[in-house]
Automatic annotation (TrEMBL):
<feature type="compositionally biased region" description="Basic residues">
    <location>
        <begin position="340"/>
        <end position="350"/>
    </location>
</feature>
<feature type="region of interest" description="Disordered">
    <location>
        <begin position="302"/>
        <end position="350"/>
    </location>
</feature>
<feature type="domain" description="HTH cro/C1-type">
    <location>
        <begin position="24"/>
        <end position="77"/>
    </location>
</feature>
<dbReference type="InterPro" id="IPR001387">
    <property type="entry name" value="Cro/C1-type_HTH"/>
</dbReference>
<protein>
    <submittedName>
        <fullName>Helix-turn-helix domain-containing protein</fullName>
    </submittedName>
</protein>
<dbReference type="Pfam" id="PF13560">
    <property type="entry name" value="HTH_31"/>
</dbReference>
<dbReference type="GO" id="GO:0003677">
    <property type="term" value="F:DNA binding"/>
</dbReference>
<feature type="compositionally biased region" description="Basic and acidic residues">
    <location>
        <begin position="308"/>
        <end position="332"/>
    </location>
</feature>
<dbReference type="InterPro" id="IPR010982">
    <property type="entry name" value="Lambda_DNA-bd_dom_sf"/>
</dbReference>
C-alpha cells in the first residue's frame, strides 16, 4: 500500500478501503468463486460480498477474517482491513491513533499450523505445543504470550518448579519472562532471544516455536481446551493415556455456528505395544474464536466408581453452570456431589 499518495485522513480511508476491496475481488476471482458462492462459504447473506466489493458496505473485522480463511490469503486481507480500520479511526478522531492504544501484541501473526500433544503417565500431564508462525505485519515480532491456568478449586496450585517450562524457536532456546504470577494462573512472555543473541521474527518470515511444560494430575483435570485467538490454518490435538486406565475420550466445539456441539472431526484411535492409547484430531482452518474442548474419563482408576455413579446427574449440571468472566476458559466451581478428582479443572493453554 502506497502511503505517499494519501494526504488526509479521509483520502486515506478511501485508499485503504479500495485496497481491501481490490484484494478481495482478486482473491475471489483467482479462486473461481462468484460473489454469492463466496458469501455462502463465509456464512454471509448472498448479496453481502457484492455490497463490500462495490463499496456500498464497509467491511467488518469478522468479514475480513472469514474472507482471509476461506480464500487462503495468508493474513493479507486481515492486514489490509486493519490498515483500513486504523485510517477510519483517524478520520473520526481527526488525528492519528497511537498504535499502542489499540494494537494486539499478536495482531500481525498468523498460525499456519498448530500441533498440540498431551501425554498422561498416571501421575503427570506433559504438554508439548508446536506452532508455525507467519509474521504478516510490518514490524518484527519479539514476544509471544502464553498462559497456563487451572481453576482455584484444584487440589494444589501451579508452581514454576512443577511446570518446568521450556521453549525454543527453530531449535534455538528461547528466554522467557513472567507476565503474571498467580496461584492458579501463570502468564509468560516467550522471548525471541537467549542471552545476548536475538532472533526476531521479521515481517514476512516464518518460524516454528515449541514449548513444553508439566502439570501434576491433581492440578490438571479431565478436559483440555484450545481457544483459537489468532487466525489459524490448521490445528491438531494428540492425547495419550495409559491403556489400563480404560480412558473414554470425546470432543466438543463452541463457535459462531455451534455451542458445545460434538466435535465434527473424527478422531483416529490407536493402541501402542507399550501400553498407551492415543486419540488424534485434525481441524483444518478452525474458526477464529472457536473453542475446541477434549474431555476424558478413566473407567479404571481413582474415583472411577464415583464418576460412574454420578455421571448422569453431573453432566447437565456442568453444562449449565455459568462461567466466570475473569476465567473465560473455565466453568465455575463443581457441585459438592462431584468426587475430588472430577472437580479438578484442566490447565488451559493459550
Amino acid at each position: 500500500m502506497d502511503h505517499d499518495v494519501t494526504t488526509t485522513p479521509v483520502t486515506q480511508v478511501t485508499a485503504t478501503m479500495d485496497a481491501f476491496r481490490t484484494e478481495l475481488t482478486r482473491r475471489r476471482v483467482e479462486a473461481g468463486l462468484s460473489k454469492k458462492a463466496l458469501a455462502r462459504r463465509m456464512s454471509f447473506d448472498p448479496s453481502y460480498v457484492s455490497h463490500i466489493e462495490s463499496g456500498r458496505h464497509r467491511p467488518t473485522e469478522d468479514f475480513a477474517r472469514r474472507a482471509d480463511d476461506v480464500l487462503g490469503s495468508g493474513g493479507r486481507l486481515w492486514l489490509l482491513w486493519r490498515e483500513y480500520d486504523r485510517s477510519r479511526q483517524e478520520s473520526v478522531a481527526g488525528t492519528a491513533v497511537p498504535v499502542a492504544a489499540n494494537a494486539d501484541p499478536h495482531s500481525d501473526l498468523v498460525v499456519e499450523r498448530e500441533e498440540a500433544a498431551m501425554r498422561f503417565d498416571g501421575r503427570n500431564y506433559v504438554m508439548t505445543i508446536r506452532r508455525h508462525l507467519h509474521n504478516v505485519g510490518t514490524k518484527p515480532v519479539t514476544l509471544y504470550w502464553i498462559k497456563i491456568a487451572s481453576a482455584d478449586d484444584s487440589q494444589q496450585p501451579l508452581t514454576w518448579d512443577m511446570i518446568d517450562l521450556k521453549a525454543n524457536c527453530n531449535g534455538e532456546p528461547m528466554d522467557w519472562r513472567v507476565a503474571a504470577d498467580q496461584p492458579y494462573a501463570k502468564q509468560v512472555w516467550l522471548q525471541f532471544r537467549n542471552g545476548d543473541y536475538e532472533f526476531p521474527l521479521y515481517p514476512g518470515d516464518r518460524a516454528w516455536i515449541e514449548y513444553s511444560y508439566t502439570v501434576a494430575e491433581g492440578t490438571w483435570g479431565h478436559w483440555f481446551q484450545r481457544a483459537i485467538r489468532l487466525p489459524t490454518r490448521y490445528l491438531s490435538v494428540r492425547l495419550r493415556f495409559p491403556t489400563h486406565l480404560e480412558p473414554r475420550v470425546w470432543g466438543t466445539e463452541t463457535s459462531m455456528t455451534a455451542d458445545g456441539a460434538p466435535l465434527a472431526a473424527t478422531p483416529r484411535i490407536t493402541h501402542s505395544p507399550d501400553g498407551e492409547s492415543e486419540w488424534f484430531w485434525e481441524v483444518p482452518h478452525p474458526q477464529l474464536n472457536a473453542r475446541y474442548r477434549l474431555h476424558w474419563q478413566f473407567q479404571n482408576g481413582p474415583g472411577a466408581g464415583e464418576r460412574a455413579a454420578g455421571r448422569a446427574a453431573e453432566r447437565p449440571e456442568q453444562s449449565s453452570r455459568p462461567e466466570r468472566s475473569d476465567r473465560l476458559d473455565h466453568p465455575g466451581r463443581a457441585s459438592a456431589r462431584r468426587s475430588a478428582l472430577n472437580r479438578r479443572r484442566p490447565a488451559v493453554l493459550q
